[in-house]
Amino acid sequence: MDEFDVLWIILIVILSLGLTWFQYQNQFKGQFKRAFIFAFPRFLAYLCLGILLLNPQIKQTTYFTEKPNLVIGLDNSMSIAQLIDTASYKSNLLKWINDKEIADGFNIQRYQFGENYATFERLNFIDKQSNISGFIRQMSNIYRSNNSHIVLFTDGQQTLGQDYLYTTKSSQQNLIPVVVGDTTNYTDLKIDRINANRYAFLNNQFPIEVFLSSNTEKEVNTEFVLKRQNKVIARKSVSFSEDIKAQNFKIYLKANQFGVNTITAELKPVNEKNTQNNIQQFAVEVIDERTKILLLYNTLHPDLGLLKKSIESNQQHQVKLQNISDLNEDLATFNLVIFYQPEANFQEIFKTVQSQNLSYIVIGGTQTDYSVLNRSQPYFKKTLSRATEDYYPKLNPSYSSYQVEDIGFANFPPLKNTFGDIEMTSESDILLIQNINGISTQQPLLMTVSENNQKSAFLFGENIWRWRMYSFIDQGDFKAFDRFIDQLVQFVSSQTTKSRLVTDVESFYNQGENSNISVQYFDKNYNFDPDQKINLQVTNTTSQEKYSYTFVLKNQNYKTKINDLPAGEYNYKINVEKQNISESGQFTVIDFVLEQQFYRANVEKLQQLSDTLFYANQLDKLKTYLTTQQKFKPLQKSLEKKESLIEWWMLFILIIVFLGIEWFSRKYHGLI
């Protein structure tokens, strides 16, 4: 309680005495003793009331010792098992983790990580991917205090996520790497990377870009071979020396076999300890046709380049940009026509598209002549206006034409379009809803139409290039957005009818990847049905071994993982229980696990993380370092709290008691 509160209490005492004297001064002049019996409880009641209003407080300071957080991260990826004696390593590690002296000095938090992280249970080294940067980022967010330290047990070999050297720059925590695995530089030739297009066209030549490296100090001659179905389809002699540590070249193959072509790349080993990284498999799907798309415009806009780049990210699509004033094309040769901001001179082309029953997409904006567009299609009428508005997207969870992944639409920047209502004049399926300043209008921003064997889509807004840029910032690449555009193009250009079971199955998967299959199921009215049980049956075409999976509902999709499938070719069947609806097909799992390509710990990179580095056989030194360095010592902190001198409810009771005493006294003496 400070001096200011003391002065207020003195003033309250004086005011309580003065107020009591003023009310009882006549009684004091006549019968002082009896008046004192009435006045004293009144004075105490006033005093309590004043203290209640003042609420004086006292300061209390408590001292406590705060132990630093010690976050222990254990790499559980497959590469660890290749580099160490796992039994001895786990025995020594568990003994160190449970050390009493370390536990007394720190708040221990134990985690294991591979592709994702989890609280430590047991190390089995079966994770097929390692995301070191993801683990560091998550721990930095969870333990934001400067009094937190991360001890990272890893081989430094990362197969997923951002480079962890960049991640640590933004981390406030002290990071102590512990190198796990052999650091000896054995002679090693390896396939670093193979770049190949996902698709090739039948009877065309397609390139295979090969990156090889060696750590040898002497001259080595070997051979690089490509095989398909155990038959050599290409070979190249390769030489390494002290001056030539890497080789990069292209090999051109002919796409003469329709379907998924699994190709094995092999670099012949030369007295190497690790030969896993000398073999790598990849796949190329050979297709016999390409979707031709005509993109018509009247005014140049950044959206045009974005659309061409995004659509052609799928090599099955070919886009031709064409100014409407220079159009001299036979529209029948195209699978899809895209009208970008149509104006008055588009009207005749619309008639041709409608008469030939061609699929088309319309993208409107501030330059669009909606009077022409209103007359050229039968699906909607838009109010004409010169004013413009920003429209934010909102995903419609009831969209049923095909399976759509939410790629973060709610956070996308707005599209610009002329202001006005859209009156629907025909049945359509709304994919994205207009959102203005956080208010959903329930009007379409993007919709698709399937009617009379003709499909079309309408996007009511320009500046879609901003969506692709935001997607890159959010995701780190363009893949999610390009997949969204690709799905829209494939749906509109496809002649297939709407299906109640919509599946997303790739032609091939890498064994080391996190592989998912997702489906959507719709009822007879084409509303998403979240209450069905959907199963996946997978059969290996060679061994006839069968695998069964059950789809789990997640975010308007049924999903399941197929990570446990060994390499091989498979037939699959997706079946909806109690419904006569199913879909079947084939896919290939390629024998490629990146975690098995490493032969030593990446000690050079781990040394860049911190000035202090330990090895897995130096756990005693690590313990000494943690228990003796001043920066790891517990901190004594003080906590100052202000508490009320008297609780309000006690004062309230006292006021009632004192006023009650006064009232009964006056009643007893016949004054009431």
From TrEMBL:
<feature type="transmembrane region" description="Helical">
    <location>
        <begin position="6"/>
        <end position="24"/>
    </location>
</feature>
<feature type="transmembrane region" description="Helical">
    <location>
        <begin position="646"/>
        <end position="664"/>
    </location>
</feature>
<keyword id="KW-0812">Transmembrane</keyword>
<feature type="transmembrane region" description="Helical">
    <location>
        <begin position="36"/>
        <end position="54"/>
    </location>
</feature>
<dbReference type="InterPro" id="IPR036465">
    <property type="entry name" value="vWFA_dom_sf"/>
</dbReference>
<keyword id="KW-0472">Membrane</keyword>
<protein>
    <submittedName>
        <fullName>VWA domain-containing protein</fullName>
    </submittedName>
</protein>
<keyword id="KW-1133">Transmembrane helix</keyword>
